[in-house]
Batch of 4 targets.
Target 1
Amino acid sequence: YYVKDNFNYTIEYYYDNAKDNSKTETGSALYQSTIDSYPDKNITGYKFDKHENVPLTISANSADNVIKVYYVKDNFNYTVEYYYDNVKDTSKTESGSALYQSTINNYPDKNITGYKFDKHENVPLTITENPENNVIKVFYVKDTFDYRIDYYYDNVKDDSKTETGSALYQSTIDSYTDKNITGYKFDKTENLPLTITENADNNVIKV
């Protein structure tokens, strides 16, 4: 009497095509029996890619009795959020996806009139398996612009009396130094109150 013998088989696991020997499974089965399943050993940030020799028909040569299971890095979503004076503008949010553990180093500049870059957070961003953590935040704040106050006497500007200053974009200048002189009286002002714009040439109060 003869009966089928048992032969060894192995299951190898590959991550980005690199074999992880610590995860290798071994077993034995009867000659010509079939192995059509194996333990799933996916890891954080990866996804199943393919397998080889599944189903495996056990042969008399243990070296041929090998199942190979391949995993590759998965893609995960990330977002870039834009804040203006610490208020998020959801209409400007950018979204994308990238491979697990890859790095995002840059983002579109979305500065707007009258503002300047302040800071960013999570740059460079290393992609994790949790999209909620994959967030770059970009902050802009109001910029400062120059303004001046010109003084006129009988419609002739006296440059020696001109005052200059600077203030935040969209802030309001509603006062000025009184520079009346002997024999004159106040007539009128122009551009008072003055709302600061991004163009210093427009930021002029006339007295």
Target 2
Amino acid sequence: PDAGRFVGQPLPPSALALMQAGEAGVTDAPASDGVSRVAAHIPVAVDPAGLFVAVGLAAPSLANNALHADRRAALMIIGSLLLTFVVALLVFVGAVERPVRRLLQTARSWEAQDWAARVGRIAGGREFRKLAEAFDTMAETVTSREAARLRAQTRMEAVVAVAPQIVLTADEMGQVDWTNPHWEEITGLGLGASRGDGWLAAVHPDEREGAAIAWREALARVADGDGPPFSREMRICHAAQGK
């Protein structure tokens, strides 16, 4: 942001350390503008020699992408489990009823996001034991990913909560569903009043209608799959100053 103000200025110590590093890498960048970023860097000591390249990506965006990927992976695992169970019920008969029931009970626990549930040791022969071990291994993988996602989400929320800038999130329909404390401090609108389209009440009256129209048009373009990121400059009413 504001790239022009850095032209002709010395690099900050954090960036200078990346430029002088002995090898390329990835690290957490200082949140100089209130946004936590993950920085990937190639120092001047690495080919092509003499060039320093660094790219910073916003940590909240990375956390959201990881969250969506984990959800997709969990749904794929659950779908695979259910398909396996159906095949087992069609192929096997009465002698395998008990192990199948055990597998189904564990699958239902996973479907309810209870990833602590495990099949464990079951009867029914070697093939069922292999299935149980495979399912428990997948559950362990999902549990690890979920723990990593929660850590990233907690870290992101902690940064956003104390960031000295307005932050809002919206659902797939464009309805605001979360605001940070700085939003309420500036606008006087709590989360309840800001939900849905309520956040528009904080926009200056002269710009409110235009902002609402631009927001709806941006949502329509995104729904069609070809919309650019929403970007619009607007004035926000300051509750403490009454203007």
Target 3
Amino acid sequence: IWFIPFPQGEPRRITNDLINYNGLSFARDTGKVVTTQSTKVSRLWVVNDGDAEQATQAASVGIDYFSEKLGLGWLPDGRLIYGSRASGNADIWMMNPDGSNQKQLTVETTVEGQPTVSPDGRYVAFLSNRAGTYNIWRMDIDGTHAKQLTTGPWENSPSFTPDGKWVVYNGTVHEKPVLLKVATDGGTPIQLTDDISMRPVVSPDGKMVAHLHLDEVTQRMKLAVVPLAGDHQVKTFE
């Protein structure tokens, strides 16, 4: 909430926190402001065999604002890897499905999130802005040997290929979000799409990449696939 003097004067910030405020009413005689304050709480749950009635909350994991934006995934051995602000900063953590043995993997003061684990369980690809911009990084499964894989202006949503050789991700080319892939050991990225594309997920056979594609005619996002080989031949679905 800000106060802007009228007809002139410098704007002044009234609130200084991360809480959302909705609606505003000014009590003229008292000089006080009434508003609605709202917060969002995210918690981790595990559902067995797709039965929502049997869902259980991971013990001691909760009250983490907007943690769904920081990512969540499975390790090959059945553990969970996820982004959390439990340390007071956005970092990557690992734990058992019941919430036990929580381990913090990143300790930087910058933002780390969106972790995805290689099929062999050796590496974690993740999003970080520790180099000044949001790029794709890779580290060992224990959080050591972090390596920057990309250097674009704005990147996110990493996804390993089934053979573990590539990381597919969202990147920015000519100020447009597109799909790219980079070798797990690093190297020159290869562009997969030319039009606006988002949220890549690699198919189990490693041949295609599902994603959201902007239809230039209708200006609506559609589900689409593109070959991982990189021929830019996008197929959309209604």
Target 4
Amino acid sequence: LQPNSSVICTSIYTITQSDIENGSITNIATATNGTIFSNDDTVTINLLPKPLLGLAKYVVGSPENIGLGTWEVTFEILVQNYGNVTLYDLQVEDNLQTTFPLPSTFVVTGLSSDIFDVNWPGYDGVADKNLLSGTDQLDPDASGKITMVIEVVPANDGPFLNSAFGSAETGNGDPVGDYSQR
């Protein structure tokens, strides 16, 4: 390289999920003539973590009258990570007592999930409102469903408004949450 001249070097780096989770990328460039090093040039690019949890709760099909004023209702809750960082300690809470207040009666007869560790048979919708064990993680763009079946004897004709609340933490401990629509 001649005196008072320069060279431009270009490289391409693909950002990884680990880079996003760490919050930054640091690039260090060093030039050498074989024995003498020039000053290092360091650039740090901060990556903005964008945690975003989404929940959607809905009734599957129509409630089924199974006799003596008892209805079987199947709910599904879609849980999705719309953000760009992994979410940890995922929890979904559903207080069924707010939906079916006394003198209504109900019993949870089933709780399952395609990918999450459900709190079954512990979840009852009153004393224990946690649908999950609280240990799941959800990668960016990943989703899973929770299916809950209840038998209810409603005290009135409704409407029965109910939403679930999802919560999790980022790897840095920042909380994120969302309520499903009613």
